[in-house]
Amino acid sequence: MVDKVWAGAKLFIGGSGGSPVWVEVGDVIGFTGDLGSTWKTADASVLADVFDRTVKTTKDPGKLDVTYRIGNAGAGQTALIAAEADAVNSYHFKVALADDAVSAGDNPTTFVFRALVLSAHKVRGANRSGLVEGMASLDIQGAVAYTAAAA
Q1: Smallest Cα–Cα separation from 84: which of 18, 48, 35, 135?
Q2: What is the model's pLDDT at position 108?
Q3: Distance (Å, rounded) from C-alpha 88 to C-alpha 71?
Q4: Which of 28, 33, 34, 67 is deepest in the core (most CB within 10 A)?
């Protein structure tokens, strides 16, 4: 098995409609968060219990924060910022790793999901020796579809 790395990974946004048309979000620096769900729990203990009883309730699909360099990043960043202004719709997103040696990028490992864009183009910290960065917060809506790279 080949180890997966983030170097070369790309983020795409695909609109809010049924069939996504993928546009790369340029100048992505990194991701923070989880691409996968976590069960929430509730305490189901009763007075007669000596030990706590926990039950699973609902799944939290997670959040993903995307850090990017603000600048000439093109249509993808523009679409990301526009998606943040949309108060209603979730958008298609795809994270593609650079791990497809067979077809030179045609079939990499992908994570596809829908998310609400809660914030975008928010300037992160500033100092005179650093580049200006933005962050978009994606609130994932539902399951993340994982597809392994072509062998």
Answers
A1: 135
A2: 86
A3: 27
A4: 28
